[in-house]
# Entry
Amino acid sequence: MRLRQIALVGQDLEACRAEIADVLGLGPAYADPGVRKYGLHNAVWPLGDTFLEVVSPTQEGTTAGRLLDKRQGDGGYMVILQTDDLEGARARVAEKGVRIADQFDGDGVAFTHLHPKDVGGAIVSIDHMVPKERWQWGGPDWEKNVRTETSVGIVGAEVQADDPAAMAKRWGEVLGLPVRGDGLSLGLDGGEIRFVQAFDGRGEGLRAFDVKVRNPAAVHARAEARGNLDAHGQVVLCGTLVKLVQA
# Structure
């Protein structure tokens, strides 16, 4: 199980695009036409062979729009995992009584979106690609958009919860991943998911993601110049904390 993509939700897509591309030093973004059916438009960037997406509502009554209202502004939206064993993953999801919010099977691409009320914290998607290097949501030629001079890849996600240990256990059961000894994190292929106490008044949700960068100080300075630091000096993009990891 690998963390392949993080999705954020923002009210103003162009504003989010600008700050993300500038601070993280990303190349061109792909606009996925497939999100139109959800009443959204989006931008998707490759960070190495992982991906960062921002979605924004284009109509009333969308899931993304309701999340913007519920969490009082821009923030985390989805955690998208890639598996080699989709059949086993789907069987486990059914066994654990998790409802399916959406599901698709196509030519070499498939996904299962888990109902957030049955796992907690965020929409979780379990995806499968053939070949495994493919990533449909980044576009047919996503490799041409890769820029790794600044950002190398996404290596972690942090979800805040009213009961972090209980949510970690639930995610672990549903995803078939053992909870680490700290009781608050799950190990992934090349990354991790952490669970922390919700304390900012925004409720449960995807609070942060980790980006491996070549020069954390330079990225931090770029965020500061744009006004993308919070009161504690942490980088914030599209309402979401970005934790910088030395590449």
Summary: The longest strand covers residues 151-161. The chain has six helices and 13 strands.
